[in-house]
Predict the structure of 3D domain-containing protein.
Amino acid sequence: MNKKKWLKRLIMAVLLVFALLSCFKTISGVDAREINAYNQSENIEKGTTSSQKKTQSLEDAYNWSKEYPHKQVVATGYTAGVESTGKTPNEPGYGITYSGVKVKRDLYSTIAADTNIFPIGTILFIPGYGYGVVADTGSAIKGNHLDLYYKTVSDVYNKWGKQTLDVYIVKMGKGKLTEKDLTHLNENKAMQVYRQQYIKSEVE
């Protein structure tokens, strides 16, 4: 077989591989980084080697500054309570965000933002906090200002306070967020190794 035919077959094979990978991403919603995280979690469960048992933190797992665009923001913390929202637990709408989902502190937590900057559903990675999903707004949240949800006032002050930092834009929202969307993010099997790290850090 001549060189031209070999070259043509090689090009076709490469194109086929790219097409299959693209199709897999479109159908499954899982990218290469998530596959890597899943493989890490599988190796940890099997206990194959000591190096595989030590999973990196989210901050160290990716080169955030190279993989995602960033924006400098001022980030504060808030709770669902009267001190932040003016609502008490027995009032209608307590703990319900502008998007309609309940406030949540998890691997993917609900945060508030100016929707002219970050539309509802935008996923940000916030160093020191984790993933934040824009679900809420606020009269004082204007411009490059975020409000990060915490369960208690003491958590707001002890774990965050007020910080100016770069956040990374993982995915821009389309103006909508549902409980199903948030559950899907937090229960994504490929990300459970990191979710367990988060849960452990919250109870320590």
Notes: The chain has a mean pLDDT of 82.
